[in-house]
Amino acid sequence: MQDRMWTFSNLLSLSRILLVAPLAYCLLADVADKRLWVALIIALAVLTDFLDGYFARKRHEVSELGKIIDPVADKIAVGATASLMVWIGDLPFWYFAFVVGRDILILLGGIYIRNKKMIIVQSNWPGKIAVNAIALVLLLSILRVEMLEEFRQVTIWASMVLMTLSFASYVQRLFIGHGLGKKVVS
């Protein structure tokens, strides 16, 4: 396991944060085909989320820093995108609050465990699946395809179930699985 900062996989993770700027520009400025551009940026962000983990394992670039950057990049990109979509009226505020509230709780739990146990807990599959479900909600919400509206509504509720399950998985891993009374060495 390497601890280099500027690895290809870490740069891919950081790129998700950088993609928020063109996404915000496309959403807020008078840009031709803005919804299509935003959809492409969201799809690119999802692709970088897949590729950063793939390359980290393939190129032996898994690092403690990467374990932090990847989920933080997800949370920043999703939170910023969702807040912009609430601003323009494409996403309900209650959904945004659920997404961001869950992410804040996970982030605070991770910081607590890091400080208490000196370990960094890596993203898990339920969390990755939930982030992809959120991305699908964002994508369907920005595209506004009328015949997919019912599917978008189902996807919103399904993503909330997945977020709840992933949150429960994080709680189990962070507090029950690591046993706060025991010293764990990373």
Brief account:
By secondary structure, the protein is mainly alpha-helical. Helix content is 76%, strand content 0%.
Q: Keywords for this structure?
A:
186 residues, mainly alpha, Four Helix Bundle (Hemerythrin (Met), subunit A)
Tell me what you see in this structure.
The protein is mostly helical. It has one domain (8-177): CDP-alcohol phosphotransferase transmembrane (TM) domain (Four Helix Bundle (Hemerythrin (Met), subunit A), Up-down Bundle). Helix content is 76%, strand content 0%. It has seven helices and no strands. The chain has helices at residues 8-18, 20-28, 34-58, 64-87, 93-117, 125-143, 149-177. The N and C termini lie close together (12 Å).
Draw up the topology in text:
Layout: H1 8-18, H2 20-28, H3 34-58, H4 64-87, H5 93-117, H6 125-143, H7 149-177
Helix pairs in contact: 1-3, 1-4, 2-3, 2-4, 3-4, 3-6, 4-5, 4-6, 5-7, 6-7
User: What share of the residues lie within helices?
Assistant: over 70%
Per CATH, the superfamily is CDP-alcohol phosphotransferase transmembrane (TM) domain
Q: CATH topology, what is it called?
A: Four Helix Bundle (Hemerythrin (Met), subunit A)
Helix count, per DSSP?
A: 7
| CATH architecture grouping | Up-down Bundle
Which structural class best describes the helix and strand composition? mainly alpha
Cα end-to-end separation: 12 Å
Spatial extent as radius of gyration:
17 Å
Give the CATH class: Mainly Alpha
Give a quick account of the main beta sheet: strands, pairing sense, barrel closure: none
Give the domain tally: 1
Q: What average pLDDT do the residues reach? A: 87
Question: Proportion of β residues?
Answer: under 5%
Q: Tell me, what's the shape?
A: globular
SSE run: HHHHHHH
